[in-house]
UniProtKB/TrEMBL annotation:
It comes from Auxenochlorella protothecoides. InterPro entries: DUF4743 (IPR031804), NUDIX_hydrolase-like_dom_sf (IPR015797), NUDIX_hydrolase_dom (IPR000086). The lineage of its organism: Eukaryota, Viridiplantae, Chlorophyta, core chlorophytes, Trebouxiophyceae. This is Nudix hydrolase 20, chloroplastic. Pfam families: DUF4743. GO terms for molecular function: 8-oxo-dGDP phosphatase activity.
Length: 278
């Protein structure tokens, strides 16, 4: 990303990227020198004395709980994200999900497009969720049928099955027919830091008579939309949760709704993996 970004590993020590929008948070971390040190003015690193993933995780968690009590870490989830250079690499530590954006770490999620194929024409329609207006993030916006962060200690397949039931009432035997179809990636600057995500994409063809039913309080309801309406909603840029746009565009490309003669086709293909996809 250029500038004063510092991200990666020095030996076994995770390095935190510092940006102008996160300077205040970085200064707060400097108040804990037993955990965070400053090898250069533009970076923080974990104390080398924290020599194992377990020690680092405990130390960082203690700091984050202190900052959360002071209102500096919002939306505490109680879910741990692994901090690692790539998805299958051993984690250097585990970090509370709500703090991921503050540190600019790469996080992972699963996003599923649930669709039906109409008899006769073969046209596809997507199930679209409306997020609860009580959610702290993107309240009332449109979403996939199923999506969720990828927590530590759970396979993507098991996570899809869990999220399918919790968010849409999809029974396990049907959820297991979801097909992994790739991934999209991005980096987005936010007030708290940099959100760096890799989203594993799944397609799930559903029976015509299946109607999703939310089992938790994250979704208000579902509607089934023709692809043309979905594409218009994405192009409008106002209705869908931002990262859902990418996964839907990927679906539209793969299923031929958008083709090489569509203006911007190659730019769309390139942009879907604009972040570090590793």
């Amino acid at each position: 990303m250029g500038g004063t970004d510092v991200y990666g590993t020095h030996g076994t020590h995770a390095v935190v990227p510092i940006r102008k929008g996160a300077i205040m948070f970085a200064e707060e971390l400097r108040r804990f020198p037993d955990v965070f040190q400053s090898p250069t003015p533009a970076s923080l690193t974990l104390n080398p004395a924290l020599s194992s993933p377990e020690e680092r995780s405990r130390a960082v968690d203690d700091v984050l709980k202190t900052l959360q009590a002071r209102g500096l870490v919002d939306g505490w989830r109680g879910e741990l994200y692994p901090v690692a250079p790539s998805f299958h690499a051993p984690p250097l530590l585990s970090l509370e999900r709500a703090a991921a954006v503050h540190f600019g770490i790469k996080a992972y999620g699963v996003h599923l497009n649930g669709y039906v194929r109409l008899p006769g024409s073969g046209a596809l329609e997507l199930w679209v969720a409306t997020r609860s207006r009580l959610k702290p993030t993107w309240p009332g916006r449109l979403d996939h049928m199923v999506a969720g962060g990828q927590p530590q200690g759970l396979s993507c397949a098991a996570n899809i099955e869990k999220e399918c039931w919790e968010e849409a009432g999809v029974p396990a035997e049907l959820a297991r027919t979801a097909v992994p179809v790739g991934a999209v990636s991005y980096a987005a600057r936010q007030a708290a830091g940099v959100k760096r995500d890799v989203l594993f994409c799944y397609d799930l063809e559903l029976p015509l008579d299946f109607v999703p039913q939310p089992q938790d309080d994250e979704v208000e309801g579902f509607e089934r939309w023709p692809l043309e309406r979905v594409a218009e909603g994405v192009a409008g840029g106002e209705r869908f949760k931002d990262n859902c746009n990418l996964v839907i565009i990927d679906f539209l490309l793969r299923h031929g709704y958008l083709g090489p003669d569509t203006p911007g086709y190659l730019e769309l293909l390139t942009g879907l993996r604009s972040g570090d996809c590793s």
